[in-house]
Recover the amino acids of this structure.
């Protein structure tokens, strides 16, 4: 990787971790559906998506690990809870309510696609190449979530009611996806994470809103106050610590073990 | 002293762990660098993953390292995974396309920058060549394949996903 000044290293670490941590949590949670998704093809699809979320996270942990001289595993599993940068939404359980699983995925997939679109234009060439490649895979996740929400919204009364309930239940947490990581403005100015037209929040609202409308459903996401502190700056709730403990249980037994 | 050609010959004998196609025919071998040192050749091999973090990468890395290390005069082998240029189905050789077709996996023709998966575009069936087919799911048995169904010969088949730009 090109040499990074210390001024950029910390903000870039935070940004990449925010994406990787989101994907690690989301992929881990979604993998609970393996064997239980509504139909066989969907079981394969949702399992493949979970696997891709973890694979994308692993590739980003590798980049962060290289920057800091640590292994990807150590970055993924060897941090204090307050050093994780994921948003709360990614660790919220779904109680095996398919609508909630799909809405959680819809919100996160659209946001990830926008983040990778920006990173694909990064002046850091290695990050740009990886992001371009991940973005191509992310687009298939977006397509998957879109198709499902529309199917649920246009289905019977029960599926419509449950899809709307899931949108309502997760809209609050969705707003906190957009909490900025520390120093992200510096990365934008330096062309590491170039801003595009319109804010990420506006673009996301437009993209997700279009799908929600096509599904015949409604969504209102109120932006979080600028000073609201959440997962992006290390303040996490119980859903996160519970999931992290579950995920790290084996790793913590013997962190240096070779598999 | 070992040559680049000799190393490529060895790489041609290594199949992708998930499909009967050599990693050279799959087009994932981007660069083979041979540097002569006093103790022997130092070999650097760059591989383009088909998908980010494809689970077969570790197996490919091990097999490449093992087989190339066995060559006379090779002192050191280093395998690196890179994403530039991005891998795409355009890199699969004609021979590779044929061995995949025999398995029931079709490979799209030149794809350039098209998206990974195109909904609503009929893919020709690898068994009967009919285009009366539809996609069952963009997510198949491995991360690089989608599932399709042929209405003419009533067979299920798969397609290598296109991989172009973002």
């Amino acid at each position: 990787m090109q040499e990074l000044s210390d001024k950029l290293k910390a903000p870039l670490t935070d940004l990449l971790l925010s994406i990787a941590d989101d994907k690690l949590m989301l992929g881990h949670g979604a993998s609970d559906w393996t064997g239980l998704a509504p139909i066989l093809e969907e079981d394969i699809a949702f399992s493949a998506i979970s696997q891709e979320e973890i694979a994308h996270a692993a590739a980003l942990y590798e980049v962060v690990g290289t920057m800091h001289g640590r292994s990807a595993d150590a970055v993924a599993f060897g941090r204090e809870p307050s050093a994780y940068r994921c948003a709360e939404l990614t660790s919220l359980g779904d109680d095996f309510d398919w609508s909630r699983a799909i809405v959680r995925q819809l919100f996160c997939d659209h946001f990830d696609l926008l983040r990778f679109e920006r990173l694909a234009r990064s002046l850091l060439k290695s990050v740009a190449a990886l992001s371009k490649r991940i973005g191509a895979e992310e687009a298939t996740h977006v397509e998957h979530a879109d198709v499902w929400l529309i199917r649920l919204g246009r289905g019977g009364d029960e599926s419509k009611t449950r899809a709307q309930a899931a949108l309502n239940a997760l809209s609050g947490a969705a707003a906190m996806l957009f909490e900025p990581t520390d120093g992200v403005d510096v990365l934008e100015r330096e062309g590491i994470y170039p801003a595009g037209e319109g804010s990420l929040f506006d673009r996301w609202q437009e993209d997700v809103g279009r799908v929600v409308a096509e599904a015949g459903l409604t969504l209102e996401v109120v932006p979080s106050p600028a000073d609201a502190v959440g997962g992006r700056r290390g303040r996490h709730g119980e859903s996160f610590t519970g999931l992290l403990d579950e995920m790290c249980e084996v790793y913590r037994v013997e962190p240096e073990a070779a598999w | 002293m070992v040559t680049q050609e000799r190393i490529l010959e060895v790489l041609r004998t290594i199949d992708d762990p998930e499909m009967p196609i050599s990693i050279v025919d799959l087009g994932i071998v981007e660069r083979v660098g041979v540097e002569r040192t006093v103790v022997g050749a130092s070999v650097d091999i760059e591989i383009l993953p088909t998908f980010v973090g494809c689970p077969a990468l570790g197996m490919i890395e091990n097999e490449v390292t093992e087989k190339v290390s066995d060559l006379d005069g090779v002192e050191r082998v280093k395998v690196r995974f890179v994403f530039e240029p991005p891998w795409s189905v355009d890199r699969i050789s004609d021979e590779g396309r044929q061995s995949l077709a025999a398995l029931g996996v079709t490979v799209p023709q030149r794809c350039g920058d098209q998206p990974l998966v195109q909904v609503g575009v009929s893919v020709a069936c690898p068994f009967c060549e009919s285009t009366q087919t539809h996609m069952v799911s963009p997510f198949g048995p491995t991360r690089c394949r989608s599932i399709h169904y042929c209405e003419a010969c009533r067979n299920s088949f798969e397609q290598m996903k296109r991989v172009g730009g973002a």
User: Anything to note?
Assistant: The CA atoms of residues 86 and 94 of chain B lie 19 Å apart. Helices of chain B lie at 4-11, 57-69, 94-102.
